[in-house]
Automatic annotation (TrEMBL):
<dbReference type="InterPro" id="IPR038632">
    <property type="entry name" value="ZFYVE21_C_sf"/>
</dbReference>
<feature type="compositionally biased region" description="Basic and acidic residues">
    <location>
        <begin position="1"/>
        <end position="13"/>
    </location>
</feature>
<feature type="domain" description="FYVE-type">
    <location>
        <begin position="44"/>
        <end position="99"/>
    </location>
</feature>
<keyword id="KW-0863">Zinc-finger</keyword>
<keyword id="KW-0862">Zinc</keyword>
<dbReference type="Pfam" id="PF16696">
    <property type="entry name" value="ZFYVE21_C"/>
</dbReference>
<protein>
    <submittedName>
        <fullName>Zinc finger FYVE-type containing 21</fullName>
    </submittedName>
</protein>
<dbReference type="InterPro" id="IPR000306">
    <property type="entry name" value="Znf_FYVE"/>
</dbReference>
<dbReference type="InterPro" id="IPR013083">
    <property type="entry name" value="Znf_RING/FYVE/PHD"/>
</dbReference>
<feature type="region of interest" description="Disordered">
    <location>
        <begin position="1"/>
        <end position="20"/>
    </location>
</feature>
<dbReference type="GO" id="GO:0008270">
    <property type="term" value="F:zinc ion binding"/>
</dbReference>
<dbReference type="InterPro" id="IPR032031">
    <property type="entry name" value="ZFYVE21_C"/>
</dbReference>
<keyword id="KW-0479">Metal-binding</keyword>
<dbReference type="Pfam" id="PF01363">
    <property type="entry name" value="FYVE"/>
</dbReference>
<dbReference type="InterPro" id="IPR011011">
    <property type="entry name" value="Znf_FYVE_PHD"/>
</dbReference>
<dbReference type="InterPro" id="IPR017455">
    <property type="entry name" value="Znf_FYVE-rel"/>
</dbReference>
<dbReference type="InterPro" id="IPR052113">
    <property type="entry name" value="FYVE-type_Zinc_Finger"/>
</dbReference>
Length: 268
């Protein structure tokens, strides 16, 4: 990717919506695969009462829309202002009691795990069935659309996140006497541009340098915290559609959630 193309992909603009100020990508096609569209607001005439506590709206009890779900509530039921980075809001926005905790968890992802994913870690990387792994640094691109892999010299590869079809986490066996399973690697299957069928890629935390191994396992753990995919991804008319086999809500995010659940149940 030339730096000019990279800069174009990262260009952003400020837009004002009824819900607040948003900093969105200049080109819709360059949006984050973790991004969410703003919901349509339930029209005022369809909600004479709070959709949570049933209080009737009047001159004193004003209605407010939750910025995440678009439903209509009184101030008590929709008074929390929480960051909503997936919709690109610049400031915390009003959310209902159902949406606020979800956004808080995601804010934790954006504040902590995302930084790890962007800074990257060193892995032993195997492509397809090749036997000898390459040492490469893997990181998420700044617009979150690509996993970028850099090895020695000019060895550069990229995997588009939206084209990842499945992810399997590789873990170390549970230590005797209980404890947490540790992610030691990740196998992902994706459709590479111009390639038939699925391509496979395996990242493994190296055994040698202790510092880089710790960074690699932290990077893998951060991948577990990736927010679940939106129900439908907005079509990008500017782009050539991916092959039918890849035209899906990225399953990999769902798979990650499943892996995370597995982890959580093991942790207990
Ligand atoms: Zn209410
Ligand atoms: Zn809500």
């Amino acid at each position: 990717m030339s730096s000019e193309v990279a800069a174009r992909r990262d260009a952003k603009k400020l837009v004002r919506s009824p819900s607040g100020l948003r900093m969105v990508p200049e080109h819709r096609a360059d949006g984050s695969p973790f991004g969410l569209e703003e919901p349509p607001w339930v029209p005022d005439k369809e909600c004479p009462r709070c959709m949570q506590c049933d209080t009737k709206f009047d001159f004193l009890t004003r209605k407010h829309h939750c910025r995440r779900c678009g439903k209509c509530f009184c101030d008590k039921c929709c008074g929390q202002k929480v960051a909503l980075r997936r919709m690109c809001f610049v400031d915390p926005v009003r959310q209902c009691a159902g949406c606020a905790p979800v956004s808080r968890r995601e804010a934790d992802f954006y504040d902590r795990q995302l930084k790890l994913l962007l800074s990257g870690a060193t892995f032993l990387v195997t492509f397809g069935n090749s036997e000898k792994p390459d040492t490469m640094v893997c990181r998420l691109s700044s617009n979150q659309r690509f996993l970028l892999l850099d090895g020695d010299a000019d060895d550069h590869r990229e995997v588009e996140v939206a084209r990842i079809a499945a992810v399997q986490m590789l873990t170390e066996g549970l230590p005797p006497g209980g404890g947490n399973a540790r992610a030691t690697g990740m196998t992902l299957q994706y459709t590479a541009p111009g390639a038939e069928g699925l391509t496979q890629l395996t990242l493994t935390a190296g055994e040698d340098a202790d510092g880089s191994r710790r960074q690699a396992t932290a990077w893998l753990a951060a991948m577990h915290k990736v927010p679940p995919a939106p129900r439908s991804l907005a079509p990008c008319p500017a782009e050539v559609p991916p092959p039918a086999s890849a035209r899906h809500t990225p399953l990999f995010l769902v798979t990650l959630q499943a892996a995370k659940l597995l982890y959580e149940s093991r942790d207990q």
